[in-house]
Design goal:
Elements (H helix, E strand, L loop, with lengths): L28 H40 L2 H20 L3 H6 L1 E5 L7 H10 L15 H4 L3 E5 L4
Helix pairs in contact: 1-2, 2-4
């Protein structure tokens, strides 16, 4: 039972590198604004789900505890968790999924968790939404991320 083939040797396959790197097309301001509107609606749904889960898990006592938390602190916390959760795991929020965009780093790769954390924290800078009158918003320029299109539609 002698054979020249070693079953433990890795296969020999030539893998050709792509001819040129993929071109990143930045998402336009209209698409980003619509994504923002969808994500704000998603945030409200997410906040309602938090209330439902707390009510189901802890009953009236849990809801009473939630009522003791200042509204601004509770809302900002849920807002922070919403963006950190979706962009930290998938680099996309529900709005980005619907409109075919994704968050990438400057090289076009998946952003690090630190970049997503910085991006989410930058959303709390006063007047940050007005930063889009420039080229990039602060929550993109400071952590060095971009929002690019994933499909042409």
């Amino acid at each position: 039972m002698e054979s020249d083939a070693n079953p433990y040797q890795p296969p020999t396959t030539d893998v050709a590198a792509p001819a040129e790197p993929a071109v990143m097309e930045l998402a336009g301001k209209g698409r980003r604004f619509t994504t923002c509107v969808i994500d704000y609606l998603g945030f409200y749904v997410f906040a309602a789900l938090v209330g439902i889960v707390v009510g189901l898990a802890f009953g009236q006592e849990g809801l009473n505890t939630l009522k003791k938390v200042p509204d601004a602190l509770l809302g900002l916390s849920i807002f922070f968790i919403y963006y950190l959760f979706f962009e930290g795991i998938w680099a996309r929020t529900p709005g980005k999924w619907l409109l075919g965009t994704v968050v990438v780093n400057e090289s076009g790769l998946r952003p690090s968790f630190g970049q997503v954390l910085g991006r989410t924290a930058c959303r709390f800078i006063p007047f940050e939404p007005f930063s889009f009158f420039g080229t990039l918003g602060w929550h993109d320029s400071i952590p060095k991320t971009r929002v690019v299109r994933t499909r042409r539609s």
